[in-house]
């Protein structure tokens, strides 16, 4: 079932478009050198938004104060509007019965889009 949902998400649920957007943001962050940690977070978001079903986000216990400070910068610059976009898209997709799983996938992307550093994406089986 996860495979079917992931393929449908990739094609119809904007998974490909989200991954391209996050990938472009990562390239820009890598080009600016100082923002490389944000580029790594963007790549993590790209991978998660490409194939969200069957995976979840957990806090990384070794994340320190530097990731918290960097997350505050992320929230101010990009996190709040990315999270808001996922919330609006999730609500819009939940209007139809067929779109409910895609809306839930968008809601799963909200916490990691808002506060990405100090988190990691794991399979639900792990």
General description of the model:
The protein is mainly alpha-helical and 126 residues long. It is built from five helices and two strands. The chain has helices at residues 2-11, 15-31, 36-50, 65-93, 100-114; strands at 55-59, 119-123. Strands 1-2 form a two-stranded antiparallel sheet. Helix 4 runs antiparallel to helix 5. It is globular.
Question: What keywords describe this structure?
Answer:
8% strand, 5 helices, 2 strands, mainly alpha, 126 residues, single chain, 68% helix, two-stranded antiparallel sheet
**Overall average residue pLDDT:** 89
Shape: globular
Helix and strand string, N-terminal first? Answer: HHHEHHE
**What structural class should be given to the helix and strand makeup?**
mainly alpha
Number of beta strands: 2
The span between the termini is 18 Å
Q: What Rg is obtained from the alpha carbons, in whole angstroms?
A: 14 Å
Q: Looking across the biggest beta sheet, what order are the strands in?
A: 1-2
**Main beta sheet, described?**
2 strands, antiparallel
Share of β-strand residues: 5-15%
Which helices and strands appear, and what pairs or packs with what?
Elements: H1 2-11, H2 15-31, H3 36-50, E1 55-59, H4 65-93, H5 100-114, E2 119-123
Antiparallel strand pairs: 1-2
Helix pairs in contact: 2-3, 4-5
């Amino acid at each position: 079932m996860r495979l079917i949902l992931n393929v449908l998400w990739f094609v119809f649920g904007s998974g490909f478009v989200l991954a391209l957007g996050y990938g472009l943001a990562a390239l820009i962050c890598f080009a600016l050198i100082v923002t490389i940690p944000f580029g790594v977070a963007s790549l993590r978001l790209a991978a998660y938004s490409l194939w969200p079903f069957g995976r979840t986000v957990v806090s990384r216990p070794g994340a320190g104060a530097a990731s918290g400070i960097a997350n505050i910068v992320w929230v101010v610059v990009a996190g709040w509007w990315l999270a808001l976009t996922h919330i609006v898209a999730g609500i819009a997709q939940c209007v139809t019965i067929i779109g409910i799983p895609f809306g839930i996938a968008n809601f799963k992307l909200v916490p990691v889009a808002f506060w990405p550093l100090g988190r990691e994406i794991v399979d639900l089986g792990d």
